[in-house]
Design a protein that fits this description.
With 397 residues, this protein is of the alpha/beta class. The chain contains 13 helices and 14 strands.
């Protein structure tokens, strides 16, 4: 049995406790109460500097950031927004919420956007693109940006899983028009909930600030955007998607730990991947050239297994203390596109479906030590061996 708990996050740094206690004593949790120096405002400044972006806006979730990004692009009702078929349900949900139409494209066995299919669908009245770097796997951003720039189509990066990932030296989330990140519990920085968006586009961020809930003249507390705000006063609806000071107080002390977490996450992932690759029935997709991932989980494909064998493997791994999620075979999984029954149009993506039916997901938090990682890998290898041995006995071979 595996002793480590892969679902346990790192503890919140002790530096956060004094600020949290001060906020609780003061009751000053609303980001716009203070004239300056509110924790949310400080977080936005520090995160923008960390990412090398001009502006940042902290909000209630990454889903909220995606929604605000779409609204700030001033897309017309029923505009078509192209997304990968492998993403979390919150991404097409944000598009529907913005009164637009999600259009899905194929994803390959390496979990990245199929560029040929993407290019073909991009020609069909697409108004915007959301690239989901799903589970931290970055698609070919060079090809995607070239295609979209040639057609004048704005790109939003859903970087919920990719804080700290690089694409040819550029930080994921800063390549498109706007990048959106998550601070949900299973992300590299954990606040339970929360999100943030970054951009160099002052007009876009100014709109997002007002729509996030900067009513009356609270937008004045966002420095450097005065000119951009002037034309939007009283012209935009308020969706009240603000982050509270309490969440920002939890997040800010974790920012200095990001570099170490990224390093440890990559070491841990590559260590387990190397061990898993010793099995002929497990394949771990390799990074694209120029991609430097910041993983806190591992994904792998099961090779030449039937549905029953996949279910047996999951059961064997669970009995050994490792929870394996198979995206396409996990009931009601929010990452399986056929479960998004709220979409106005259901599309079939045979290549993506085939991948999801064999793609496995295992949490691999960065705080695990070498012995714990090896125990997880051993459990998975033992589970696949048990599964295949049972199959051989069943056929008398």
């Amino acid at each position: 049995m595996v002793a480590a708990d892969p679902h346990q996050a790192e503890p919140i740094p002790s530096e956060a406790r004094a600020e949290i206690d001060r906020l609780l004593q003061s009751g000053d949790l609303f980001r716009y109460t203070a004239e300056e120096g509110a924790p949310v405002s400080l977080l936005e400044k520090e995160f923008a500097e960390l990412m090398g972006a001009k502006y940042a806006l902290a909000v209630s979730s990454c889903s909220a950031a995606l929604f605000l990004a779409l609204k700030s692009l001033r897309l017309p009702r029923d505009a078509r927004v192209l997304i990968p078929g492998f993403t979390f349900a919150a991404v097409p949900s944000s598009i529907v919420h913005a009164e637009c139409i999600p259009v899905l494209c194929e994803v390959g066995p390496d979990y990245r956007i199929d560029i040929d299919d993407f290019s073909a669908r991009l020609q069909k009245d697409i108004s915007a693109v959301i690239v989901s770097h799903m589970r931290g796997h970055t698609s070919d951003m060079g090809a995607i940006m070239s295609l979209c720039n040639d057609m004048g189509i704005p790109v939003i990066e859903d970087a919920a899983h990719s804080l700290g990932t690089l694409w040819r030296g550029k930080k994921i989330g800063t390549i498109g028009r706007v990048g959106c990140f998550s601070f949900q519990s299973y992300k590299m920085i954990n606040a339970g909930e929360g999100g943030i968006m970054v951009s160099d586009d002052a007009d876009l961020i100014a709109q997002a600030v007002i729509m996030s809930g900067a009513y009356e003249h609270n937008w004045r507390k966002h420095a450097g955007l005065e000119a951009a705000f002037a034309c939007w006063q009283n012209r935009l609806p308020l969706y009240n998607l603000r982050m509270s000071n309490l969440s920002a107080a939890v997040i800010r002390p974790q920012l200095p730990h990001l570099k170490r977490r990224v390093r440890d996450g990559k070491i841990g992932h590559d260590h387990v991947a190397e061990l898993l690759e010793t099995s002929p029935w497990i394949s771990v997709p390799v990074p694209l050239e120029g991609e430097a991932r910041a993983p806190d989980s591992i994904q792998f494909n099961l090779v030449e297994l039937s549905d029953d064998q996949v279910h047996d493997f999951v059961a064997h791994a669970g009995a050994r203390g490792v929870k394996v999620q198979v995206f396409g075979l996990s009931k009601n999984n929010a990452r399986a596109f056929w479960n998004w029954q709220f979409l106005p149009h259901q599309e079939e993506l045979p290549q993506t479906r085939k991948m999801l039916m064999r793609a496995c997901d295992v949490r691999l938090p960065v705080h695990l030590i070498e012995a714990e990682r090896e125990a997880i890998a051993d459990a998975l290898l033992s589970a696949i061996e048990a599964t295949m041995n049972e199959n051989q006995k069943a056929y008398g071979t």
